[in-house]
Amino acid sequence: MGIKQYKPTSAGRRGGSVSDFADCTFPGVNKPEKSLLSPIKKSGGRNHHGITTTRFRGGGHKRMYRQIDFKRKRDGVEAVVISVEYDPNRSARIALIEYPKDEKYDNAKSYILAPVGMKAGDKVISGETEAVEPKPGNCMPLWKVPLGMAVHNVELTPGRGGQICRSAGCSATLSAREKDWAQLTMPSGEIRRVSSKCRATIGSVSNPEHMNISLGKAGRNRWKGRKPHNRGMAMNPIDHPMGGGEGRSKSGGQPKGPTGVLSKGGKTRKDRKPGGGAILRRRPSGKHQKSS
């Protein structure tokens, strides 16, 4: 795929860029499988009481959710890739695959995350048998994946479905195995261990150029349902702990959120969070640290 730059016919066009969708089977045509769609109800960042729990959310374009198969439980059955499509709900591309008709399953078609290089006509399979080879798109448990391979859509609990490395361009590296545990190096540089029975899909997630796209104008953020972010320093004291003061003022305190919780430098992960012991090495601190 590539990035398309428009002619600077306006201020928004000058700095904006979009994907050329060359990795999609039908660029410019968006016709998803209707049997795999479900409506999305917008919350505007509010909970069931109507109270705003996430600020600066609301509006945006209407979307239908594509039901993605993160579990890949049809073992030993080869599926054919019908098309690679755009998904408005995620940064990665998705692939529509079709299994042979089976009475056990209502729908022979399903969506999966498309790895880099997948195209229409390819065949994918999941399971633990010898027929499942370690090639992009195939799903298998970590004990069967060769060391050093890049994987995505990795489970944290066997049978629960893939939870990590699902966004565009992401992949984890299987670096070691010991007894019933597999050691993964995450894109952030974090090293964590998961059960060898957890499944993962071979390859990296598609659309790696997503990070290079520039929105160009504020309106494109509004289309995504994101409203302007107001600085606390520009508010009144009643609205924010950092508000008020004569002229521009740093308020004499540390940066914090509306509820007074420190927003920079503090650790946000709970010490007693389940799974914390599975992290062998934390990700490097700092926004611009390179992952190793």
Strand pairing plus helix content: what structural class? Answer: mainly beta
Strand order of the largest sheet: 9-16-10-13-14-15-17
Low-confidence stretches: none
CATH topology of the largest domain: OB fold (Dihydrolipoamide Acetyltransferase, E2P)
Specify the CATH class of the largest domain.
Mainly Beta
- N to C succession of SSEs: EHEEEEEEEEEEEEEEEHE
Characterize the largest beta sheet: strand count, sense, and whether it forms a barrel: 7 strands, antiparallel
- Which percent range fits the helix content? under 10%
Approximate strand percentage: 15-25%
Number of domains: 2
Number of alpha- plus pi-helical segments: 2
CATH architecture of the largest domain: Beta Barrel
Number of strands: 17
Outline, from the CA principal axes?
globular
Domain Large ribosomal subunit protein uL2 RNA-binding: 45-126
Keywords: Ribonucleoprotein, Ribosomal protein, RNA-binding, rRNA-binding
Biased composition (Basic residues): 219-230, 280-292
Pfam family, one: Ribosomal_L2_N
